Amino acid sequence: xxxxxxxxxxxxxxxxxxxxxxxxxxxxxxxxxxxxxxxxxxxxxxxxxxxxxxxxxxxxxxxxxxxxxxxxxxxxxxxxxxxxxxxxxxxxxxxxxxxxxxxxxxxxxxxxxxxxxxxxxxxxxxxxxxxxxxxxxxxxxxxxxxxxxxxxxxxxxxxxxxxxxxxxxxxxxxxxxxxxxxxxxxxxxxxxxxxxxxxxxxxxxxxxxxxxxxxxxxxxxxxxxxxxxxxxxxxxxxxxxxxxxxxxxx
Length: 250
Prior knowledge:
This protein is mainly beta. Helices cover 12% and strands 45% of the residues. It has 4 helices and 22 strands. The chain has helices at 81-86, 145-151, 207-211, 235-245, and strands spanning 14-16, 22-24, 28-31, 34-39, 46-51, 56-59, 64-67, 72-77, 91-96, 99-103, 111-117, 122-124, 129-132, 137-142, 156-161, 163-169, 174-179, 184-188, 192-195, 198-203, 218-223, 226-231. Strands 1-2-17-22-19-12-15-14 form an 8-stranded antiparallel β-sheet. Strands 8-9-6-13-16-11 form a 6-stranded antiparallel β-sheet, with no helix packed on it. The protein has a 5-stranded antiparallel β-sheet with strand order 3-4-5-10-7, with no helix packed on it. The radius of gyration is 19 Å and the shape is globular. Mean pLDDT is 79; it is low at 1-14, 79-87, 147-155 and 207-215.
């Protein structure tokens, strides 16, 4: 990818789909000493970040594709008892400019910039983080035993705090839904990416079909106001599909 012209900040643009959902289409923006461009939407997205001299941002270890030789890369091990028991990220990569860095998800998927105002609480799926500006902090908090048992995210979920931009990744395309006060939306738990709306986990359907699979019929019921981002593919279902199509060695 060649170096792109430094962009000005643009707000997110969304094209509505059936049912009020929308796919995110904004790809260019800036924040403080960082300019970014997201290419190859929706399934093979690449994040290009151009850093001004001395400006840093944090990325998921292993996400870097390439970078200019002028960029400084440092790894940081983040040890804590909570991370040991929650399975949270225990390391991060810090890139310091000047220069350009390219990052991408581990598998085919999309990337969005999530703008944090320092006031609205955000939560995200355990595999959703890709990168963020330096003032954004990720913490893990308990979501209660009932939600942990059924949501698929475990006893702790990742919270995003601070002001800046968090770059969120998905498996497949990302769909955004804005919920009005009191409006509800039901999402299969395997499709969650990030959300600011309140939610509860419940089982829908029933009978023999739902009892045959541990995750069958488990959903998150979101209630507005707030925003919900979901992904078009379910990692668990995809893994089962690939396993079923892979010849047995036995």
